[in-house]
Amino acid sequence: MIERLKPRDIREAAKVYNKRLRMEIPKGLSTLNKTIKHLKEVETFVYKKNNKIKGLISFIFKSKNEIKIDFICALEQRRGIGTALMKRLAKFSMRKKIKFIYSNASSQDKRTIKFYEACGFKRYGKYFADKNFMLFRIKAKPEWILEKIKSKERSLAKHI
Known about the structure:
Strand 4 (about 65-75), helix 3 and strand 5 (about 100-105) form a beta-alpha-beta unit. It is globular, with a radius of gyration of 16 Å. The chain has five helices and seven strands, in the order E-H-H-E-E-E-H-E-H-E-E-H. Strands 1-2-3-4-5-7-6 form a seven-stranded mixed β-sheet, sandwiched between helices. It has one domain: Aminopeptidase (3-Layer(aba) Sandwich), CATH 3.40.630.30. By secondary structure, the chain is an alpha+beta fold. The protein is about 40% helix and about 35% strand.
């Protein structure tokens, strides 16, 4: 089940966020209290299974027609959690008449880039966060995301 983050779930969501984030940045850089504060400043959808948060997607409105994904994570990889969260964000974006959803991905994080591309995102630029750390700018229209996910679901259904 996917729902908006509720105040009562914010501490659990922060733990999921930090657990996944620790795989990408040095331990200690993001404390639980900092993450809780951050999650209060962004919009977040959570994926729950058996009443436990298994994944989340947080985002911010950059303009009246653009959303920037702040963070997406799943505690269990290759279970469809990230795709389900992305689909929920795309449907939400269409209702809000959002034209583009965008994010940044480390050029070294091949798994994340592959995930975004599998969800219909395209690279449109790059920049260096510092001299040794390049990020790709990626974006998609909500309808691209929904079509790509629908196509993936049809393909999977053929193999069952």
